[in-house]
Every structure is written in structure tokens, then in C-alpha cells.
Amino acid sequence: MQRAPFLTDRLQGFGTTIFAEMSALAERTQAVNLGQGFPDTDGPAEVSEAAIQAIRDGHNQYPPGPGIPSLRAAVAEHRARFRGQHYDPDSEVLITAGATEAIAAALLALTGPGDEVVTFEPYYDSYAAGIAMSGAQRKVVTLRAPDFTFDIEQFAAAFTPRTKVLLLNTPHNPTGKVFSREELTEIARICIEREVIVVTDEVYEHLVFDGEHIPIATLPGMAERTVTVSSAGKIFSFTGWKIGWACGPAPLVAAVRTAKQFLTFVSGGPFQHAVAVGLRLGDDFFGAYTAELRAKRDRLCSGLAEAGFDVLTPQGTYFATCDITPVGGTDGVEFCLALPERCGVVAVPSQVFYDNLAEGSRLIRFAFCKRDEVLDEAARRLRTLGA
Ligand code: PMP
Ligand code: GLN
After folding, report:
1. How far is the CA of 38 from the centre of ligand 1 (A)?
2. pTM score, whole prediction
3. Domain ranges for the chain
4. Which end of the chain, N or C, is surrounded by fewer C-beta atoms within 10 Å?
């Protein structure tokens, strides 16, 4: 019997997310978990206290659909303060269940069967699933190791008359690349020429160690065609709260809101109050956070180099990519599956973020958003690999 394709057909092969799988592996083997990217310490006490206070104050029912007004205002203030971007909190800011929902809702709202979405590989895992759920096709452009640059001709060639959206991510997970102004200017030129909307995932915007975070929406002609996504999970180290947001021109944000209202409707009422407090913290908080993570990057990267890996030092995010060739690895998936047994550490094989598997077959990703003693212990264990 003929039947319409089910959504599960579109998601065939997606299985369990790599992050959940690797955390389960770490749990099972009692390994040091540098796989899934989540901090092992809490964010600022004022922010968690504000969440507790919000519960005590009775903010426990559905918040308004677009998010509570004070958080929308705080998001707009934050974008203006750090990025010089100006959004109307009522029509141009939408609070979502993490960046994940903002991205999925944007893809569902802006693309459908017959459309194409261009994105860079390696890509964050939810991009492929979000594109598949909308029924669109992904077209990938490879960021080539070791410096994760791309070919602009190849990028332009990925666009067809069916391309609706470019899904961009800077600072970039898993590579740690921070797109330069020159690269973003070229990308913007092509998106304007092809009349393509940009959805830009900037969840690591406060984790730039070298270079500068440039929101593509700040380039000429881009604000009107860009949905910018960010998240409190990464800014305040409360990944379990799942408070994110999408900012952009009113018609685009209205489209995202339409999809969002039937995904979760709303979420995280008390946490929305707390994140509004967080976004208004002083510059000292944001500066100290970046400095702390920069030191962790340097700590883990030297540990990995001492263990014999070829470290591709990240400019941003909280992930470091390594080539496993110098430690005798040829296949990152096999390498990561064996690593807990060999030395009690979990990492993520970057190959799972590629369509062109060969490009990522020798790359693996370590998270460094962990306590110093955890990073040191992981490095100590990894050094035994060569022994
Ligand atoms: N985008 C990227 C690049 C990520 O690494 C993550 C993981 N935090 C997300 C989106 C999802 O963010 P959230 O937890 O806010 O949904
Ligand atoms: N963003 C995190 C990472 O890249 C994981 C989030 C998740 O598990 N979905 O590791």
C-alpha cells in the first residue's frame, strides 16, 4: 500500500544523538567525560538565586508565548551592549526552549520539502535533523582541517534556485573556528545576491579567545535577512535550563514564533526571570568567563599535545579538535569507542558531523568546560596511550 512518508522516514539513520551516546559510554565505563559539552560547575550564584526567587515569587505558570517581557528586553539590551545590534523586544525577540528549538523552529518555519539549506560541515548534529524534519535537503560546504578554511567558489556553487536558508554557526562547534570578517563579508555577499535568509547560531558568542565575534547580521544588508540565535546555556553554564532566543526582523521572528508555539508553546518560566538577571550582569562577569575558559583551553590543549595528539587549537567555543594520526589512530569512531577501555577518557569522533566522512575520519573533539583537576586527570590518562 502506498502511504505518505512518515516523519520517522525522514529521520531514518539519525538514531540517538552522539552526545547522549558518549555520555552513556562515560557513565558505563566510569571514564572522564570530555565528550558531551556541558560544564561541570554551576554558573553565577546571583543567577541561580534569581531562579529560586522566581519560583518562590510564584512565577510558575505558563509565561507569555514570546517570552516574559523583562527577558525579551534583557536580550535586546545584551545585543545592543555587546554587538551594537538593535532589536525591538516586542516584535523582534523570541524566547525559545534553548537554541535547539530556535534553530528547529526557524527551519520548520522558513523551509519545507523541495527547499535546500546550505550549511558548513562539520555541523552541529541538530542541524541535519532539523533540516530533515522540515523536509528540506542539506547542501554542505567543507571546512577543511587543519585551519578549517573553505573555498568560496565551492560555497557559491552550493547555492541553487531552491536554496532558502544558510545555516551558519560562529564560533563553530565542533572545530572552534571563529569566522573572520573577510569570510563573513563574502558569505553575506552571496546570500544577498541569492536572496537567501541566514539563520546564525551564535551560542558561543562569549567564548572567543583569538579574534573577534562578528555577528553576520551586523554586516551591510544582512540585518533584514538574518535570524540570530543564542542561548543562556552556554553564556551562564546552565545548559539544563534550556533558555534560548531568536532575534531578527519582525516578519522572520513571527514565522519562527508560529512554529515554536506548536513545538513547546512556552518553557522554563522561572528560568526566564533568572536569565534576565544574568544578561544584565556587569562586564566583569563576561570578561572573567571568557578568561576562565581561555585558560582551560590552553590547559587542555597543552595536555593533549603532551599526550602526542596533533592539536588544532580552537579560536573559540569550549571544544578542542585533535588529529589522531600521531598517536597511531586512523579511524576516529573506532578510536573514541576504544578510548574509555584504553585509558578511561571519552571524546567525540568528529566524523559524525560530516557528510563527507573521509574529511573527518581522523579528527576527534574534546570538551574543556571542566574543572582543572578533571582536565589534568584526562591529560594524565591520555599520556599513557603512548606508553
Ligand atoms: N548550537 C550549538 C553549536 C551547540 O553547541 C549547542 C549545544 N549547546 C546548541 C546549539 C544547543 O543549545 P541549547 O542547549 O541552548 O539548545
Ligand atoms: N552542544 C553540546 C555539544 O556539542 C551537546 C548538547 C547536547 O547534548 N545536545 O557537546
Report:
1. 10
2. 0.97
3. 5-42+284-386, 45-282
4. N
